[in-house]
């Protein structure tokens, strides 16, 4: 199995282990066991490589109560300079669910970049629903996020 294949299997295994791994009481989706944001995937790589890439444990940066991992030094530096540009919208919660008033953790393999913003989705179906009306879904999610986020934080 290639390194990429092993990463995909690992990511799928983490995801299938259930939502117990995803903090649902935090503003950012964080693995409760490791403290990793978005399951250790590199948030900058979505923009630079147009794909989900796992980060390296040697290239971590702590921000907003979570450990963020990066696939290279340049990506970590870019994130350190302006994390809000690269962080997933709604803390990594699925914008389709947020648009419906629900916080559902997104999966790092199901993503879209829309208007220079990163969105993570719970499933391929949720991503398809978003892509059918990205402006409408994003606008409804933006409107609902203040109320939804109040249900997450302590």
Automatic annotation (TrEMBL):
Keyword Signal belongs to the record: yes
Signal peptide residues on this chain, from the entry's feature table: 1-22
Keywords: Signal
Record protein name field: YHS domain-containing protein
Organism: Pseudorhodoplanes sinuspersici
Lineage of the organism: Bacteria, Pseudomonadati, Pseudomonadota, Alphaproteobacteria, Hyphomicrobiales
């Amino acid at each position: 199995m290639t390194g990429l294949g092993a990463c995909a299997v690992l990511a799928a295994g983490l995801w299938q282990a259930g939502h117990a791994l995803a903090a649902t009481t935090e503003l950012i989706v964080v693995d409760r066991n490791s403290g990793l944001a978005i399951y250790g995937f590199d948030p900058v790589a979505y923009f630079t490589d147009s794909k989900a890439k796992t980060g390296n444990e040697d290239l971590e940066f702590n921000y907003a109560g979570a450990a963020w991992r990066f696939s290279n030094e340049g990506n970590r530096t870019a994130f350190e300079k302006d994390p809000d540009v690269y962080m997933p919208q709604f803390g990594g919660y699925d914008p389709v669910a947020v648009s419906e008033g629900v916080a559902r953790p997104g999966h790092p393999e199901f993503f879209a970049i829309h208007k220079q913003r990163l969105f993570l989705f719970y499933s391929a179906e949720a991503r398809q629903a978003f892509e059918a009306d990205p402006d409408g879904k994003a606008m409804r999610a933006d409107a609902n996020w203040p109320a939804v986020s109040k249900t997450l934080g302590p």
